[in-house]
Structure formats: C-alpha cells, structure tokens
C-alpha cells in the first residue's frame, strides 16, 4: 500500500493530457514534489508557473536513452515513478506504413518502459521500494484494427509490466498497470475518439486508488471498467498468480 501524501513523484509526458492531469491530481492528493518530465522542458512552464517549487521540470524522451539516465541522476530522491508518455500511430495491419508505425511505437511504448524501469528501479529500491506505474491501455487487451500496431505495442508493454511486477516485488516496489479507454486528450482526438472520451482526471484518481489498495490493475473510465469487470477472474487466477509454483 502506498500513500501519495508527502511523496516525491516523477511523471513522464507531463506537459499535457493525462500526464498533466496526473501532476495536478497528485499535488492535490498531497505529493510533496513532482518531477514533471517531457521531451521539451519548456512545455512544462505552465505547471512550474502554477505550482512553483513543488514541480521540477525534467527532459525525458523515451526515444533517447541518455535523457532517461540523465533524469535519473537528477531525480535521485524519487519514490513513485509514473511512466505516462507514449505514442499512437493510426495503422491497420495491411497499411503500407504498418511495420514502420509499429517499430516507432515499440521503441517508445515498450523499450521506453524498459529503459525507465532499468534507470529508476534502483533508485526506488534505495528510497524504500516505492512504486512504478505504467500507463497501458484497454488496447493492450483488445486489438482495435484501425490502431492495430498501437494495440500490439501496448500488449507488449502490458506483458513487460507483468514481468516488472514479479521482478520488482523482491525489492518492495509496487507495480501498477493502468488501462484507460478513450480519455479526453489530444491523442484521443487524433484517433477520432473525442465524442466518447471521458475526463483525464479519472486516470490519476484510479492510480491513487490502486496505490492505496495495493492493486496491480487500474481501470479508470467506463470502457475500462467494462473490460476490467470481465477480465477480473482471469487476472486474479492467471496474470497475478504464481503459476511456477506448480
């Protein structure tokens, strides 16, 4: 179980959408300091202007391993890491750009997660265990043909998140896998999902609930909750079970 109050948090992709909402909601919940990370730190100025010293701007580009290791050196006191940054390309499996689209998505959505975990998990261990939170998607459980390559990359990131849960348990780090449906962000608008999208603040609220209740999965919005309700038994008996015990 993790309380947000008084904790030091890092959020990637913090300059807009879900990431910005995570920063704001975690501050409301009592986080003492948040490292807000984005590819362009200048885009974080509205957050640093609004919250002063409680928000520290960092540069993290999940495509740039050096930026991740540099940020880890700067944020050595972090206790909760939330990897929100990701990318979505619109490509079905037969599209001419499908392979290139998925290569880009894998680089950010999967390899970026692995780089973040490798850089920050040692810090979490030193700082008492803490938590690593990964923004996955309902698309990690159900492939949507128009976003097939994105769905596949998120399925891979969800699989890696499960592995991280088991590995990091040994050092006392809680891992949370977050699976939003359509959320009102620029990404959802780009994907043509604006009409059914729900408020971004549902995501940080679900993350806080998962941290406080020691849950691995978080399903924030209406579509996510629908998926989660059906998925619950499989998750409990398979995903979260230790099948290697025999």
UniProtKB/TrEMBL annotation:
InterPro entries: NAD(P)-bd_dom_sf, Sc_DH/Rdtase_CS, SDR_fam. GO terms for molecular function: 3-oxoacyl-[acyl-carrier-protein] reductase (NADPH) activity. PROSITE patterns: ADH_SHORT. Coiled coil: none annotated. The keyword Oxidoreductase applies. Its EC number is 1.1.1.100. Keywords: Oxidoreductase. It comes from the Bacteria. NCBIfam families: PRK08264.1-6 (NF006120). Belongs to the short-chain dehydrogenases/reductases (SDR) family. This is 3-oxoacyl-[acyl-carrier-protein] reductase FabG. It comes from Candidatus Thiodiazotropha endolucinida. The lineage of its organism: Bacteria, Pseudomonadati, Pseudomonadota, Gammaproteobacteria, Chromatiales.
């Amino acid at each position: 179980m993790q309380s947000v109050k008084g904790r030091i948090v890092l959020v990637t992709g913090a300059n807009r959408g879900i990431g910005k909402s995570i920063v704001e909601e975690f501050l409301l919940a009592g986080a003492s300091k948040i490292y807000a990370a984005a590819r362009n730190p200048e885009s974080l100025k509205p957050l640093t202007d609004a919250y002063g010293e409680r928000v520290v701007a960092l540069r993290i580009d999940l495509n740039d391993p050096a930026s991740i290791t540099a940020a880890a050196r700067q944020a050595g006191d972090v206790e909760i890491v939330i990897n929100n940054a990701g990318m979505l390309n619109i490509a079905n499996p037969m599209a001419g750009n499908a392979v290139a689209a998925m290569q880009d998505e894998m680089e950010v959505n999967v390899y970026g997660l692995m780089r973040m975990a490798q850089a920050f998990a040692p810090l979490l261990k030193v700082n008492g265990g803490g938590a690593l939170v990964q923004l996955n998607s309902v698309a990690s459980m159900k492939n949507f043909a128009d976003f097939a390559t994105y769905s596949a990359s998120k399925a891979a990131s969800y699989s890696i998140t499960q592995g991280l849960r088991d590995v990091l348990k040994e050092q006392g780090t809680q891992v949370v896998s977050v699976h939003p449906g359509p959320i009102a962000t620029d990404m959802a608008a780009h994907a043509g999902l604006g009409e059914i999208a729900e408020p971004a603040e549902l995501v940080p609220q679900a993350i806080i609930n998962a941290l406080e209740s020691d849950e691995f999965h978080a399903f924030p919005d209406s579509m996510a909750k629908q998926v989660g309700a059906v998925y619950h038994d499989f998750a409990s008996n398979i995903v979260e079970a230790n099948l290697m015990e025999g």
